[in-house]
What we know:
Strand content: 25-35%
Structural class: alpha+beta
Strand order of the largest sheet: 5-1-4-6
Largest sheet: 4 strands, antiparallel
Oligomer: single chain
Radius of gyration: 14 Å
Distance between the termini: 24 Å
Amino acid sequence: xxxxxxxxxxxxxxxxxxxxxxxxxxxxxxxxxxxxxxxxxxxxxxxxxxxxxxxxxxxxxxxxxxxxxxxxxxxxxxxxxxxxxxxxxxxxxxxxxxxxxxxxxxxxxxxxxxxxxxxxxxxxxxxxxxxxxxxxxx
Length: 138
């Protein structure tokens, strides 16, 4: 099974206040969010499939910070970008725009956050794809 690094693209069409596990309650403004995570190990990218299932309402259990965003009724998982076979999670997250929640998805590293925000979905998607391409070529 393939593994590597992924970034989920999430649209939130309306503002929402979301309880993000141990990070507490946070206000998310409308727009697009890019969450970068690692799919290394025996399950590989099946973790991404799990995120899609949670976003679709087919799963309830929340294990990671992003699960709280994906579980928000108004949120929609619109796609993902993957870098196969590479551990570039922090390199990708550090090059994306700042996110609204300090420590989001970054409890096991020194990054400020693994959640980026963009008002324009197309622009954020292009940025994510470009960053994945750039870090995989380094």
